[in-house]
Design a protein that fits this description.
2 copies of one chain form a homodimer.
Chain A lengths: L4 E6 L6 H11 L5 E7 L3 E4 L5 E7 L8 E4 L5 H4 L3 H12 L3 E4 L3 H7 L7 E2 L15 E2 L4 E4 L2 E4 L4 H14 L1 H10 L13 H14 L2 H17 L1
Parallel strand pairs in A: 1-2, 1-5, 2-4, 5-6, 6-10, 7-8
Antiparallel strand pairs in A: 3-4, 9-10
Helix pairs in contact in A: 1-5, 5-6
Chain lengths: ~230, ~230
Amino acid sequence: MSEPFRVVFAIYPRLTQLDFTGPFEILARLPGAETIVASRDGGAIRSDTGLEIGATRKLAEIERCDLICVPGGPGVEAASVDPVFLAELKRLASGARYVTSVCNGSLILGAAGLLKGKRAACHWAWRDLLPTFGAIPVADRVVRDGNIITGGGVTAGIDFALTVMADIAGEQIARAIQLSVEYAPAPPFDSGTPESAGAETTGLVTARMTSRKESFVRAHAASAAAE
Amino acid sequence: MSEPFRVVFAIYPRLTQLDFTGPFEILARLPGAETIVASRDGGAIRSDTGLEIGATRKLAEIERCDLICVPGGPGVEAASVDPVFLAELKRLASGARYVTSVCNGSLILGAAGLLKGKRAACHWAWRDLLPTFGAIPVADRVVRDGNIITGGGVTAGIDFALTVMADIAGEQIARAIQLSVEYAPAPPFDSGTPESAGAETTGLVTARMTSRKESFVRAHAASAAAE
C-alpha cells in the first residue's frame, strides 16, 4: 500500500472559514488523500464569523505533509507575528511537495519567509502588502511559482483547489470532482472584483479593512525593527 | 434596537460541509444577522469528509428563526427518515420568512412535507427524486417558489446565498459581500454540469451514487408504506 497523500490545513483563530472549507471540500475528495486540520494548540478554532471548527490537531504533532495550505482572514494579523505558528509552517513547508495559501493567507506564508522573490496571489484588498515580505503580487485567482501555489480572495480557493487537484491527480479526476460539487458558478451579480463592482461598492468594502491593514503594517514594521 | 435577523443552519452527521459553509460565509455577513448552527442533539457534527463542526446548538432549543437552511450530503438518507429532525424543521419552517436548502438538502425539506407542489432545485444527480415528495424538479442553480428558495449542488450554495442576501438586504449589500469574498469565479475546467462534463466523467460520478440513491428510494418506499 502506498502512503496517503497528506494535506494539512493550518488554521488559527478568526480565520475566514470559506478560505479553508472550499479547498477542503475539493482536496478531501482526492483519492487516497488524508486531510488534516491543524492549529498551533489543537482543539477548537472559531472563524471570524463564529463558526467553530472542532478537534483540530496540533501542528507540532504532525511529522510531515505533502501539501500545506494556509487560509486567510482577520486572524492573519495575529498569526503572522506568532513565532510558534510560523516555525511550524516553515518546518512542514520544507518537506512538502506543495506550499499553498488562499486569500491573505499568503501574507502568513510571507511572514514565515517562504515567499521571498516569489510571485503570489492574495485577496485583492490585501495584495499590496505582499512586498512587505519580498513577494511579487499578481492579480490572478491562482498563481504558481515553483512549488508555491497561492489563491486569491476567499472563493478563489475553489478554483485554486481544482487547479492543484489536476496537478496532483490529473485533469480527469479534477473534472469529476468539479462535477460532483456541481461547480458551474452563476453569480447573480457581476461584482466579484473592484473593477466589476465599481468605485462605490469597492469603497464600502475597503473602508471596513483600512484600520486592520494599518494595524498589520504597524505590527510588521515593529517585528522588522526587532530583527 | 430591532431584533437580529436569525439564520439557522440545520445540520446532521455526514452532511457535505461546503453545502453549508458556503452560504454560512455569505449570510453571516448580513448586517444585523444572528447565524446559528444547530443539529438534532447539539454538539459536534462530522461531515462526510471528516470535518468536525463544533458546538452546534440543539434544534429543539431554538424558539424561532427568520431563515432556515438545510444542506445536503450522504447523511440525507438518515436525516430524511429521522422523525425528530423532521419535526424540528417543520416547526422552525412554519415561522420562518425563508425556507431554504442547498444540494440534496431539498430532499429533506421534501421529507418534512414542505415541498408539496413546489418547484425546487437539487444536486443534479439527485434531482429526479424530488417527485417522491410531490416536488417539481427544476434544473437551475437557484429556484424560488414563494418563500421557498432552494439551491443546486454544493457550490450552488454561494449563488443561492447571494440571491437570498439581495432579497433580504438589497442588491447593493449583496454586491458588496460578493466583492468581499472576491466571487468572480474562474473554474480551470468546464465540467460543472453533466452536459459540460460529458458522458464519461458523468458516468464516473453517478456510479459512486447509484447504491446510495437506491437505498434512499427503498427507505422512503418503506416509510410511505408505514404511513
